Amino acid sequence: MDYLQRMQTNPPDLRPDLARARIPQERRDGQPTIGMVSLGCPKALVDSERILTRLRAEGYAISPEYQGADAVIVNTCGFLDSAKAESLEAIGEALQENGRVIVTGCLGAEPEYITGTHPKVLAVTGPHQYEDVLDAVHGAVPPRPDPYIDLLPASGVSLTPRHYSYLKISEGCNHKCKFCIIPDMRGKLVSRPAHAIMREAEKLVEAGVRELLVISQDTSAYGVDRKFAEERGHRAHITDLARDLGSLGAWLRLHYVYPYPHVRDLIPLMAEGLVLPYLDIPFQHAHPDTLRRMARPAAAARTLDEIAAWRSICPEITLRSTFIVGYPGETEQEFQTLLDWLDEAQLDRVGAFQYENVAGARANDLPDHVPDEIKQERFERFMQKAQAISEAKLADKVGTVVEVIVDAVDDEGATCRTKADAPEIDGNLFIDEGFESLKPGDIVSVTVDEAGEYDLWGRL
Question: Where is the MTTase N-terminal domain (predicted)?
Fold first, then answer.
């Protein structure tokens, strides 16, 4: 099952859930050193970068290995029960390999859950509680800064390759989806001031970042809590923010965009070239009854109309989404409606996961949970259809010229991405001839020679 393999595998050095700090740095004698393991989504990765930046500013060295660290921070994920289990496993590994472990992140919102399994952790803090993490580090490994040696780069610490960076614009979420506990862990929507986002983005671009990936829990809702106020020349509204960020000259990619009506105002910015023609939209399902049980907007037909309108304005737009199969109460007819909707929508990039209970989620109490074997069978049918759509769409690109950004170069070739591909979650374009002069961060034009189910091959 190639589609299963492709959906679950990413290069280890690019996966957020396997991220270890990779910071070239000579450690001075006696310098306190901290390791970091970052699990989960790109939003957690941004939190890890902020924590490490603060630690570097205080004179700590960052170790990529357990054995080289005086203590290890594990930034956890707690979205699904399987993610919780993975977080507990990572904490156990850090305890075994190092012994001095500080836990933070989403699972930290349930400290008893962590200490019940791992009572020897030094401290547990919740998501985006940077000051508490620093306090815990200070208690375990007191800082010993040398102001003449410990210099922090202006761009801070990054856990991604230097040519792209995630840009978090808000925390929290105002939705009440029954399958999700993120609002309970991260609270209601809190948008960052637009001028602060712009300042961070400008520094990133000045430091060599060629692609900015905008992330949040609900990008479309950015600024609602601020009543879209304007401050220091920048308005806290996603359309204005996208226009301002697009003026910096880097690729700008939008993630987690809910299909509110005002999203259509973003599409002309894509047609103009200010924003990449790419939308990451969490549709989750298509049958109105399933969506109602999820407590999601139940307007799949109107969504198809919106998609058609977006494509009429910007024909080259790429649409990515994720779906839940086997949600409680999902009938075969409801699932077939989802497959039929996917046929009509013809989304470019599609992922899915099988429903599972999450402690504290309201969906747990819904009747008629779908047996595991049926969930698996529906998942496979869904991914087969999604793969066929992807394969056909990529085949249409053979013979065209596309712009790509280079992610990595080795002896065998260059691994690149088109404007239709986000790092870690979408496909790649590979160049295996005449690539020797390329380097990560280059943006070049490529003729597509060959297409697979998810990836492309081309030549300069």
Answer: 32-142
Q: Residue 197 in contact with residue 242, Cβ under 8 Å?
A: no
Over the chain, what is the mean pLDDT? 86
Q: Consult the annotation and say whether 106 binds a ligand.
A: yes
Exposure string of 213-233, with b = 16+ CB inside 10 Å and e = fewer, is: bbbbbbbbbbbbbbebeeeee
**Beta carbons within 10 angstroms of residue 164's beta carbon:** 24
DSSP state of 14: T
Nearest to 316 by CA among 259, 266, 278: 278
Using only C-alpha atoms, what is the Rg of the chain? 22
Distance CA 191, CA 187 (A): 12
State whether residue 151 is helix, strand or coil: coil
- Comparing CA positions, the residue from 456, 391, 385, 402 lying closest to residue 277 is 402
314 is in an annotated binding site: no
The secondary element (H helix, E strand) that includes residue 254 is: strand 251-254
For the record, the structure tokens of 214 come out as 């905008």
Q: Which of 351, 325, 360 is nearest to 84 (CA)?
A: 360
Closest-CA residue to 338 (of 314, 322, 349): 322
One-letter amino acid of 220: S
Question: How do the residues of the chain divide into helix, strand and coil, expressed in percent and rounded to 5?
Answer: 35, 20, 40
> In terms of Cα–Cα distance, which of 92, 98, 78 is closest to 17?
78
For 27-69, write each residue's pLDDT tens digit: 667 788 898 888 877 777 777 877 887 787 677 888 878 888 8
Q: Is 180 annotated as a binding residue?
A: yes
Q: What angle do CA 161, 74, 57 make, to 5 degrees?
A: 60
Query: Where do the H-state alpha helices sit in 98-179?
Result: 111-117, 130-140
Q: Which residue has the tokens 């930034």?
A: 75
**Which domains does the chain possess?**
2-140 (3.40.50.12160), 164-395 (3.80.30.20), 401-459 (2.40.50.140)
Structure tokens at 179: 């399958």
331 vs 334: CA distance, rounded Å: 5
Question: Residue 55: helix, strand or coil by DSSP?
Answer: helix
Report the pLDDT value the prediction gives residue 21, as an integer from 0 to 100.
44
Tell me, yes or no, if the pTM score tops 0.85.
no
Structure tokens at 70: 């005086």
pLDDT given for residue 339 in this prediction: 97
Does residue 416 have a known ligand-binding role? no
- Phi/psi for 302 (5° steps) reads -65, -30
